[in-house]
Amino acid sequence: MYASREDIGYDFGDDSKVGSKPIKPNPNIDGGWAWMIVLSSFLVHILIMGSQMALGILNVEWLEEFNQSRGLTAWVSSLSMGITLIVGPFIGLFISMCGCRKTAIIGGILNALGWILSAYASNVHYLFLTFGVTAGVGSGMVYLPAVVMVGQYFQKRRALAQGLSTTGTGFGAFLMTALLKYLCTEFGWRNAMFIQGAISLNLCVCGALMRPLFPKDVVSEKHVVRSNSEDNQAKGLSHSAETIKSNGVLSEEPENKEEATNEEVLDSVQHIEIGGKSRNGKSMYGLRILKTVSQLTLTVRKGFAVWYSSYFGAASLFTNRIFVAFIIWALFAYSSFVIPFIHLPEIVKQYNLSSQNNIFPLTSIIAIVHIFGKVILGIISDLPCISTWNVFLMANFTLVTCILTLPLMQTYVTLAVVCALIGFSSGYFSLMPVVTEDLVGTKHLANAYGIIICANGISALLGPPFAGWIYDMTHKYDFSFYISGLLYMVGIIFLLIQPCIQKKQPREKSMEEAQV
């Protein structure tokens, strides 16, 4: 078991204590539109993660087209995959200001633009900018909202919902590999990227499905306050302050005064619009522009305040020691999952197992079992008698054990068994958003999970080159598995130590108070 955010005294500013009316539970939570959110997230994983898993097809085409080294060409796909995750904290800022729906739609357009512009690439460095950066940032702007929205819409079956949505990565790896291979054969790689860019516009549709989960009472109350006259202006200001507190921002007098000023501007503009119908059109047009600018400024200020307080305020996420240990774990975890995909083909050649591997590739075993692992681990974690944290730790221990023992296997059957265990245990990826939400709460999920996937992105970006550097020094693939496995074990140890320290500190404090 681990300490929750209540156990460690992590205050996020609960708005239920501010004398607000009790809000009825939304019927879409754990049902209704929530399953459309799962479908949307599933399609996002197919189009983004599935496409990135299939970039090996395009990598071969780029090597033949540009005649560059394998290392330089490989950076194109590495940049795209790494940036998708690394930009997580900054995407959290967009979500705080614009919401998940708008962020995902903009990201879908940017991702499609990156694919289309890459079709006109004249060299590898051009691809760094168009595909690595542009498409990578667009992918990140869709991926994070897809995960966050599932966490917002589910409470009782969060792990299962996340497991079902993330299985899109496995399905996408098969579908997109076959699709890109067909398109490259029939139309060439440039037209294939152009067509894939058009397909990626469906990410905008997925983003449009991410309907915000707002309580009806709050929306109706806000509408009433806006429609009232000057006598109810004070109530509108207090409601605005309540909204800020519910978003997790510490209430400070300077911020309240500035926001009150913005609210007064909006109210005064509305009153002028109502009472000034006889005025000319130009002045009314100017007032509408002023109103729009004021609303935009207020939205940006509130969003930035939420984002800033999550990272640097008194209620910073980094004051949660278990969450910090979670970040350290994420820095080592992802590369340990990627390295087997890179070095398994070479290990197969080393042990003369190519004929058996061609019939049923070991990497395919990992991918197929990985799909079932996500769903099964999600179902197990949702059982009332099971702790999600314990399931998460057990899966990590199984994975690190397989990584350390895989180089010792020298037959196809033993390698297949270990690869199946790697695929199943790596299904804990679907539990990462659930564990993150348990640590920091739903309101801070976007910013917190943005940090986690950023750490994963750094691991994915640096892990494969680090493994290649180890091979160049030792001329053995075994050491890549051993060193990455040991680093992975260090991250797991951090996860085990921090809850024990966190529980020990309150006991010592209570003993000191008893002595006093």
TrEMBL record:
Gene Ontology cellular-component annotations: membrane
Gene3D superfamilies: MFS general substrate transporter like domains (1.20.1250.20)
Transmembrane regions: 33-55, 75-96, 103-121, 127-148, 160-180, 192-214, 322-344, 359-377, 389-409, 415-436, 448-467, 479-501
Subcellular location: Membrane
An example molecular function term from Gene Ontology annotations: monocarboxylic acid transmembrane transporter activity
UniProt entry tagged with the keyword Ribonucleoprotein: no
InterPro entries: MFS (IPR011701), MFS_dom (IPR020846), MFS_trans_sf (IPR036259), Proton-linked_MCT (IPR050327)
KW Nucleus (keyword) present: no
Membrane-topology annotation of the record: Multi-pass membrane protein
Domain of life of the source: Eukaryota
Alphabetized CDD domains for the sequence: MFS_MCT14
Listed SUPFAM superfamilies: MFS general substrate transporter
Domain Major facilitator superfamily (MFS) profile: 37-503
Keywords: Membrane, Transmembrane, Transmembrane helix
Annotated protein name in UniProt: MOT14 protein
Taxonomic lineage of the native organism: Eukaryota, Metazoa, Chordata, Craniata, Vertebrata
